[in-house]
Specification:
This protein is mostly beta strands. The protein has no helices and 22 strands. A hairpin with a 4-residue loop joins β21 and β22. The structure holds coenzyme A. The site of coenzyme A has 12 residues, from β21.
Length: 159
């Protein structure tokens, strides 16, 4: 695997770091601000637009499926998955892999911290200043400055 070339991105700010074994599909749909870091093994599928604000970093093995809008100063611990896409399942007699895929944009506002092993499903917005505890599955919008945890993620308390 060749290392992604940030010159192929739609936009790339200054001082970004792309570690070994990072894989970026459709880099022409990826925009990143300054000082963004993709650590070892991050996988980005930008079939739809992905925008990432400055000073945001992704720990090893995070997986990003667009469409996504991620703010500034966010931290994503290892093995977080942004599942903005899925398989249609309305027809029982057609294999799900043959049904139309779904895509609903995920929006992460500024200054959000995700603990390790979180998954966020399509169509969800996470408000600024929030924390998502380790191993959580986020299925609904999160109010700003919330601390959430569990599957599905529930409010633990406000910051
Ligand atoms: C979410 C988190 C920040 C909360 O920290 P905290 O405010 O100190 O919370 P507490 O330990 O006081 O726990 C408060 C309650 O939330 C629960 N809770 C804490 N983390 C939780 C999680 N990830 N999922 C579900 N519930 C959680 C606790 O069990 C406790 O419940 P109780 O009141 O019924 O006993 C922390 O637990 C966490 O998940 N940190 C992520 C660490 C990480 O992944 N680091 C990777 C490198 S950045």
């Amino acid at each position: 695997m060749s290392k992604p070339n940030s010159a192929e991105f739609a936009q790339c700010g200054d001082s970004c770091i792309i570690a070994e074994m990072v894989n970026i599909i459709n880099p022409q749909n990826l925009s990143v601000g300054d000082n963004v870091e993709f650590k070892y093994g991050v996988h980005v599928e930008a079939g739809s637009t992905i925008k990432i604000g400055s000073n945001t970093h992704f720990a090893p093995f995070c997986v990003l499926y667009g469409p996504l809008s991620i703010g500034e100063n966010c931290a994503f611990a290892a093995h977080c998955t942004f599942a903005a896409v899925g398989h249609g399942f309305a027809e029982r007699d057609t294999p799900m892999v043959q049904q139309a895929t779904t895509a609903e944009k995920i929006i992460i506002e500024d200054n959000v911290w995700f603990g390790a092993n979180c998954t966020i499903v399509g169509g969800v917005r996470v408000g600024t200043g929030s924390i998502i505890g380790a191993n959580s599955v986020v299925t609904k919008d999160v109010e700003p400055y919330s601390i959430m945890g569990g599957t599905p993620a529930k409010l633990i308390r406000k910051r």
